[in-house]
Each structure stands twice: as C-alpha cells, then as structure tokens.
C-alpha cells in the first residue's frame, strides 16, 4: 500500500512527495482509516515508527478552515524539544495548506510566546503546564478543539503530569476526538484511558518488547565507571563507523561525569543534554548533533525520550536502565528507516537483574562480546561505586534518578550534611579521650 491509495488530497500528497515519504508504516496504515472515521484511538507506538505522521495526516486531512482564532487541533507532548519537533512535522506536512501552527513550552518567558498564541492558530502543540498558563491568563481558549492528541502519554504520566492533563481535558469541549500515543500501556494508563476516552480502538505499531530487527545488539561486561570510560574512548578512537553515537545514562550526575571525562579526549565532538541544562544549551546540543556537527551526544532517558534523531549509527547504554522498556526506547533510536544500527550495552555485575528483565521482555538474550584486550581495566572506583557504607542512622546517599521538571536546584551547603548521630558516651570519648579504669585512676593517684 502507498500513501496515494489513501483518501488524501493533493496538498498532502505533494508534501509527502517533497519529504520522499511514499510507503506508509504499519501504524500509519492502521491509524488512518480509524482516525478518519472519528473514533478515539490509543496507538501503541514508540518513536521511529512514524507515529507522528500517523496522527497528523488524518487530522490535517479533515481540517477545515474556520474563522475562529483558537486551535481546532491540540497536541500535548511532554518535552520542549518534542514540541519543536511536532511543530516542524506539521509545517512540513501542511506546506501546501494555509494552516497556522505554533508550539508553546515552559522554561522560557511567556511573553515571547504570547504573540504566537494571540495571532490565531489552527494547530497548537504544547507541553501541559505552559498550555494551562495561557488558558489561565485568558490568551487561549480550548472551546474550538475538535481533535485532541496526547503523545508520549506514558512518559507524561510517569513525570507526574496527570493533574495537568485532567485539567486540560476538563476545559475541552465534550464533542471531540481523542487520540493518544504511548510506547507502553501501563496500569495507570489503562485507568486514565477508561476515565477519559470513549471506547477507543487500540492500534499497535509493532509488538512492544520486540527489538527492531535491524538493530544489532551487543553486550560487554565492564567492571566499573573508569573502565567504561576507557572502553568508550577505545571504541570511538578505533572505529570511524561510530559516526553518530547516542550515549544513554540514567542520571544527570552520571551524564555530567561521563561528559567531563570523555569530552577532553574528543574536543568539540561531544555534546550533552539533560534537564538541568539551560533551554538554549539543550536546543543547541540537539541541533548540532542532528546536523552532524557533534559525533557523540550524552543524554538522559527523559530528555532524549521521543526526540527524533536522524541516522544514529550506535546507541551506547553506558548503564543498564532499571525499567526494561527504557532499554527498548534507547535502542530503538538506531536502526531506523531500514538502516542498520548497533546498540551496545556496558554491563556491570550489579546490572545482572536488570539485564535479565530486559532479556525476558525481548524474549532473546543480549549477545555478549569480550572486552577488547587493548582496553585498560581500571581498578579505581568512583565515589558511587564504593560499597555502600551503612552507618548508624544514616546511609550514604546515592544520586537520585532524573525526575524531569525544571525546578531542580542545588541543595544549600547546610542541607548537604549527612546526619550522623553520635551517642553521648562516644561524644565524651571523642572530646576527652578514653575513660580511665579504676585501676588506672588508683595508679594515677
Ligand atoms: P516518529 O516515529 O513519528 O518519531 O517518526 C520518525 C521518523 O520517521 C521521522 O523523521 C519521520 O519523518 C519518518 N517517517 C515517518 N513516516 C515515514 C514513512 N512512511 N516513510 C519514511 N519515513 C517516515
């Protein structure tokens, strides 16, 4: 089947032709007739399956000119980068249509975005919080929305956006079509769907848990952080085919640590992106990596989620994610559009259980490769690799997983102290030394 077999009009056909998009993907083929019929849809699809076009195409096909200045198509996504990406997709698809599209997201001053919203819109792409800001200050009304799309909804719920989503839904007209896309269907999501959707049809892009066939997976047992640095250094130095490498790490701190160590070895070719970086820094890193100005991008799961990077040659799992689905999302960033991709996993002993869960989810084992002999095995452990020291009433804190959001700030110095309780007797001993025995006291007389 080709797009020309779909019931789409010339402006859209021409835009697709310009994009050299001819053959619909599975989700596009499945979603088009259902969305056209007006039914609510839950699409199970991860990034790279063509899910964005799968909802945009029928929505744009059914779009009708209105004099209303408020949007008729509303797309909600979890991150700012995704806003820009979806806006770009709308612009490309609606190239030959007279459609007004804008994107709004938090983390920047509202004043810059206000004229976009006030000017009048057909399609609005937004992160949930900023959308509510505009609704609450009266710049935007949601009464005209006919098609409501929530993308990456599982991610949004896990980031704690449920209350905002519910508020947005409350403000929408009841006569509307709901479309939702998610990489996984969690129990929380099932409840959400039952609460707000009207008998939706479930459409799946590819069975979740099935790694894309054009991704070659390789696992390497690596003992510690420093050896991982040596290995990454070796791989990048000896393999020019590691041309566009996305390195995933679970925490912002770890991402910073990897960046600090690896970027001096490859000046001007390594970038980093995580939620503690400023908005401009994030956009620039994303742009430079996609424009092939950077060879490597170090990223945390949350920020990279949903971002569409072109032609990633290698995904490196610098650590193994605790949630097996995250591994699937990570490796799914390579091997796109019939290109072969390689996904490496640096696996330490402590990752054994996570690795098992991933293999169970995939139904296959991650093929293992021996550590190249040239790589120096370091025995030096980082602060976080030291065995956890359990002290009375205190436990050495492990850096937290990234939790999204923008409101992160450094702890004040006074709050950084580890609370160690010292018994009175110990305190006295520290202050006055070991107490004398009766015998000693007598002798001392
Ligand atoms: P998505 O899954 O929506 O993030 O899309 C991933 C990438 O695939 C985007 O760069 C799209 O432009 C591209 N794409 C989407 N549909 C097709 C298609 N039918 N044929 C080729 N590329 C596509």
Q: CATH topology of the largest domain, which one? A: Rossmann fold
**Number of helices, where a helix is a run of at least 4 consecutive DSSP H or I residues:** 18
Tell me the β content.
15-25%
Poorly predicted segments: 403-408
Distance between the termini: 104 Å
**Overall morphology:** globular
Q: Over all CA atoms, what is the radius of gyration? A: 26 Å
Q: Report the CATH architecture of the largest domain.
A: 3-Layer(aba) Sandwich
Helix vs. strand class: alpha/beta
Largest sheet: 7 strands, parallel
Strand order in the largest sheet: 3-4-2-5-6-1-7
Mean pLDDT reading? 85
Bound molecules: adenosine monophosphate
CATH superfamily annotation of the largest domain: P-loop containing nucleotide triphosphate hydrolases
Helix content: 25-40%
Short description:
By secondary structure, this protein is an alpha/beta fold.
Structure explained in plain terms:
- The chain has 445 residues and is an alpha/beta fold.
- The strands form 3 sheets. The protein has a 7-stranded parallel beta sheet with strand order 3-4-2-5-6-1-7, sandwiched between helices. It has a 7-stranded parallel beta sheet with strand order 10-11-9-12-13-8-14, sandwiched between helices. The chain has a two-stranded antiparallel ribbon with strand order 15-16.
- The protein has 2 domains: 3-204, P-loop containing nucleotide triphosphate hydrolases (Rossmann fold), CATH 3.40.50.300; 215-385, P-loop containing nucleotide triphosphate hydrolases (Rossmann fold).
- The protein contains 18 helices and 16 strands.
- Helices cover 38% and strands 15% of the residues.
- The model is unreliable at 403-408 (pLDDT under 50).
- It is globular.
- The site of adenosine monophosphate has 14 residues, from helix 3.
- Residues 21, 23-25, 28, 47-53, 308, 337 line the site of adenosine monophosphate.
